[in-house]
Amino acid sequence: MKRKSYRVSFPGGNGYDLAGIVDRPTHTGDDREPSLAENAPVAIFSHCFTCNKDLKAIVRISRALSDLGVNVLRYDMTGLGGSGGNFAETNFSSNQADLVAAIRFANAELGPVTALIGHSFGGAVSLAHAAQNNNDPNIKALVTLAAPSDTQHLANLLSQRDPDIEKLGVGKVTIGGITWDITKQMIDDFRTHDLTGLIPTIKVPTLLFHSPTDTTVNFDHALRIMGLLQNAPENPHVPSLVALNGADHLLVNEPADLTFVAETTAAFLSRHARMS
Q1: Sign of the C-alpha dihedral, residues 42, 48, 52, 54?
Q2: Residue 206 above 50 pLDDT?
Q3: Would you say the pTM of this structure is higher than 0.90?
């Protein structure tokens, strides 16, 4: 399978254009131009908090998925990477709106979106979308990497890092060597969402990756998500949890982890998320 990658731009959910990259599998006949592989799953890859589509793990997993027969749109949320807008004005609600916009664009560009993939906070956004759109017949599978089971823990963590956020309405928090303006409206929005209440309503096959040694989002979050999905009375699918022993939150310690995640995800999506 050959891969074709190209940059795209599309209207986001918050009034700004979003930057994205499409990684798609193609097949080439003797006398033909490359064309979209038939019935290949179409996935949206949402990045982590303060990250972007060019994070090493996202790039490598997305490209590997495409090589294995999965169409992927990875994109920058509002205020991050190449997308417009101000990050300090975003929140979980705006992240959800951007995911909806990415799905709308991919539906037109690649065909019906059949799977959601999310890393860390992008996993939380994907979980919420899957739960709130249970009637969408196209979404057939969900994959998360190091996803939190709620949004409140991040609000509390940011508030602890700089008390000025709640006292003055804005503070500064250093993440990944970059200092970000974090606003009170952002953490207030995080606290309004009940992700743990939404997760049990998810009705699609779900695959969770998480490291037992993740020091950013504790492994307990993965166990909590598993429990919420397993005990959901209306969920016909048994969720799967893959423990990435020794991996770090951004999956940079061991390159082989990225290959394993991509190959496992591709097999999962090939089984559950192929286009009709």
Answers
A1: negative
A2: yes
A3: yes
Question: Mind listing the pLDDT tens digit for each residue in 264-273?
Answer: 999 999 999 9
What does the pLDDT look like over 18-52, one tens digit per residue?
999 999 998 654 434 444 566 899 999 999 999 99
Average pLDDT value for the chain: 93
Cα→Cα distances 222→46, 104, 113, 148, 228, Å: 18, 29, 25, 7, 10
Q: What per-residue confidence (pLDDT) applies to 235?
A: 73
CB 121 within 8 A of CB 154: yes
The SS3 assignment for 192 reads coil
Q: Where are the domains of the chain?
A: 2-151+193-272
- Integer Cα distance of 173 and 24 in angstroms: 36
Distance from C-alpha of 272 to C-alpha of 117, rounded to nearest angstrom: 13
What does each C-alpha distance from 35 to 24, 29, 64, 103 come to in angstroms? 10, 9, 18, 21
Spell out the alpha helix ranges (H) of 68-91: none
Q: Check: CB of residue 202 under 8 Å from CB of residue 229.
A: yes
User: Which residues are registered as beta bridge partners of 46?
Assistant: 118
Q: Which residues have C-beta within 8 Å of that of residue 149, sequence separation ≥ 6?
A: 195, 196, 199, 221, 222, 224, 225, 228
Domain 2-151+193-272 belongs in CATH node 3.90.228.20: no
Counting every residue written for the chain, the total comes to 276
Q: Are 151 and 221 in contact (CB under 8 A)?
A: no
What whole-number percentage of the chain has pLDDT above 70? Answer: 95
Mean pLDDT to the nearest integer, 197-209: 95
